[in-house]
Amino acid sequence: MARILQRSPAAAGRTAGSLAEAYVEELLSALPDDYTIIGGVTVLDRSGERALTELDFVVITPLGAACVLEVKSGSPEESASGELLRHYEAQNGVKSISEQLARQGAILASRMKSFGERVIFSHFLVLPNGTLSAHAEVLNHLEGRVFDSTRLESLCEAILALNERARAEGVIVDARALERFFVSHYTYRPDAGAICDALAAARRRKAAGIASWVPCIHTSLPLVVVEAPAGAGKTLLAQRLLREAGERREKAVYLNFSRNPAEAMLKSGAGVRASFVGTWHELACECEGRTRDVAALSPEQARDYFSYCSELLMRALAAKRYCWDCIIVDNAEGFMPEWLQALAQALSGRGRLYVLGDPYARIFDGRESAEFDPDQTLLIRTDETLRVPQRQAEELRAFRLVGESFTSASPLEGDSTFIAERYSGPDSLFKATRRTLEQFLSRGFRPEQIALLSWHGWRGSDTLSREVIGGCRLRRPLDAFDANNMRVFTEGEIYCDTLRRCCGFSAPCVIITEMDFEAVTEREKALLYLAMTRAEAALAFVMSERAYGALSRYLAGL
User: Fold this and answer.
1) Nearest residue to 443 (alpha-carbon basis) of 186, 233, 267
2) Enclosing domain of residue 275
3) What is the domain-level CATH number for residue 309?
4) Residue 344 within a domain
């Protein structure tokens, strides 16, 4: 059975046209498994704003040949000059099918040149419940390319023959690349914002992955280590564990290395009864007595102060100044091993330490995995993500950023990550970022569904310092907190931050900008993994020419 990448929206209706398309789709599904059917394609102009033509079906063969099908219900009329006409009562007018086919052919020929390789392709007119005389077929230069009700059974044979023609002529291209060309680069998809809403609902129905079954495991061991990739449900697991600890009236704490997920935990209300919810360094500063105004310190001074506070906290934990029944460490890959070992000393006699980490997100220098007594530890491992689209999961494996067992349970196949723009300087960087943002907006993503993340830190970022990009205001975090200890943001629609601060963060559409590096080192690989696992539906890179060259060399060496 052929692979149906996207069902035609019209096929769900009950009009004559939609029933004809549904019948043709059923016929096409009998093609072999390595054929792909794309339904309901709208080709836009190069600005992405105006529709040029509609394609009822595009069939991609295994050898990269393309067949475009125009489906019409009923029988067209034939003019004295041999032109095919169609009456549309609802629109009270007559349209020329011949003119439409000629226009589609010209657009397709132009677009196939943009693909960059020669492609064997054909254009068929399909009349599933109509007929066309042989005379009209010849006059309209459609000989052999019209499949009416009298020869509909040979449609699939003609498509198979197109694949063999590509083989005979030696014109073989990457079928998946051609498929992405039709689906992503030059077509309009159904409203992206609505798709993302449906995806969120689908993930909720799947009960958030590990959050649904890890709490059901009963063990007397004091340490539970969960190793799972981004999007597996670790944060939702932490919420459930913290909420259940509160219901049992246990003394519980939630710790994270990053502020984003810690704030998300506070907003969720799961830690309303917890002794502490926040970051390791916030707890360390609280232990020290918060004698310094961190916002007024330089980066070097802040680093030294946090190190000093961490030492004090570890001594306090070892001295049993703290005693908790439930300790939950989220994003544990950001914790120093000695921090985790010190926390284990703060468990009550019945207590349990949950260490939730991502083995692929090693973006912090010097953060090795803590070693616990195996006789006291329950280790749970999974390599399944609910967030990452299937296409990104394939890329992550191909780029060797994850293990071969890494899989996606997302209901979305998605598009490949694309390098939307390359820049050579500050001015071209801004323009490239703006064009990429405008492209996603034109696809139907709502501004609040888009996140703009910088590869640089705040101090070195030109993009994050701007207030408006592409007509949208940026929602930027400030170095200030409100009365509820939440970060204060500027007013805006597009969320923006640095990539390094986005552990635990995700958005339907993510643009990674200011990507600039000389070589793909282990740290760059970890950052690439972090970048490629933030998006739930669409991901784009805006990178420098230097970074593009480094990434190309890395991929060529795999």
Assistant:
1) 186
2) 221-385
3) 3.40.50.300
4) yes
